[in-house]
Amino acid sequence: MVEMSKDGRIGKAAMKAGMDRTTARKYHELGQLPSQIPPAPRTWRTRVDPFEEDWPELEVMLKAAPELEAKTLFDFLVERDESDRYQEGQLRSLQRRVKAWLALHGPDKEVFFPQEHRPGEAMQTDFTWCTVLGITIAGEPFPHMLCHPVLPYSNVEWATVCQSESLAALQRGVQEALFRLGRHPIWHQTDHSTAATHEIPSGQRGERGFNADYLKVMEHFGLKPRTIAVRKSNQNGDAESLHGVLKRRLEQHLLLRGSRDFESVEAYERWVQGVMEKANRLRSERLAEEMAVMTPLTVPRLPEYTEERPLVSAGSTIRVKHNTYSVPSRLKGERVIVRIYEDRLEVYYASQLQLTVGRLVGRFGHRINYRHLIWSLVRKPGAFANYRYREDLFPTLTFREAYDALEPACETIWKTDLEYLRILHLAASTMESEVEAALQLLLDEGTVPRADRVKALVVPGSPEVPTLTIPEVDLIGYDALLVAGEAVAP
What we know:
This protein has helices at residues 2-7, 10-17, 21-30, 55-64, 70-80, 91-105, 167-181, 212-221, 237-257, 265-281, 284-293, 370-379, 397-406, 413-429, 432-445, 451-458, 476-488, and strands at 122-129, 136-137, 140-141, 145-151, 156-157, 160-162, 183-184, 187-190, 224-227, 261-262, 295-296, 306-308, 317-320, 323-326, 337-340, 344-349, 352-358, 366-367. It is of the alpha+beta class and 490 residues long.
């Protein structure tokens, strides 16, 4: 076009543009550049449609069940056809055809409406599993969750480590975030976790209501509770989308750190919160808008535990939140106070701490410490064989292997149990790790790990008192020194 404007010669202009003369004349007559000419719609097929014969039947199937996938329909055709007319490479063609049919004739799809968040209006809280990060505590795997509150307007976020979606975990996560801000929004939004809501009784209709304890937490902090619709996680979109962002950020910082092992859960949580503080600094402008309209937080902190007063059973156990825990046998028959934290239980009697034990997740679990029961079991070895929580009395795999090695060496099961209980009594009286090491040594040697052999390795014998000979004191040397001193004196 530029060359044609100079001298109007089509041949010369085409030659300088590197274009055929006929093509140049076409564009010149149209008065348009190639990029300005829309391609003509194609009305012909470049290859034979392999599904033309069966498509009417497939269309009927799609009308009846639009959820059918192209892969399922393709497998249906291949299984029915015996002439090898269909090959694997044709699946993509059917997928495109089904996709086009659904767009033209399929059912209406759910539409999502973008929401405009207003500053200081709400906080969204959700839980996310972080086992994928491969965190270890003192070398031990640490499966865990994060309670993840988010301000959807500014995307300022916080997180606390927890073991389950319990009310204690939710309360702690929300409380830490609120006191970090020093202010609170109007609404607090969650999904339908059992921490916040409960199931409607059978035979009744309606939405799930809020738990009374959860409502008390919301009332204390001046928050109005609301939930998303059932099975509509997209309505908690900011918290849900930030889960993936958070885990990717933590993964990158773990790579920079060079280690996924932490000395304690507290150290790991401090590290997580340090990473989040860095991310929140980039959101300070929008956070300032939220802080300007939120209400100052003037209430005190809630205790991070609830209390129960169970009675210690005849088996020296208590039942807390549908789980069973052993306690020292001296508390049998007494009523104790149990403080239930998100990750642990603290057992008090007469206002004195008696026991701290990790909290079990779920229901109908049990955590039995052999040290609480061994003194009675040694006196009643016959109770061991059918004890309900017998497997809890094997503290490690080595103890279990030792018991299995004792069975063929002892004449009866009763003697096997008695021998093992003596070993367990030794572990409770000394150090479990030393007893385990002694058992492993005997097992590696192929020696039956009887209690006396284990004791000989763990408890050293009485040391022999050496016989000492008291020499006679010879003072002649001292006399000689005195004589020499007198001779030197003036």
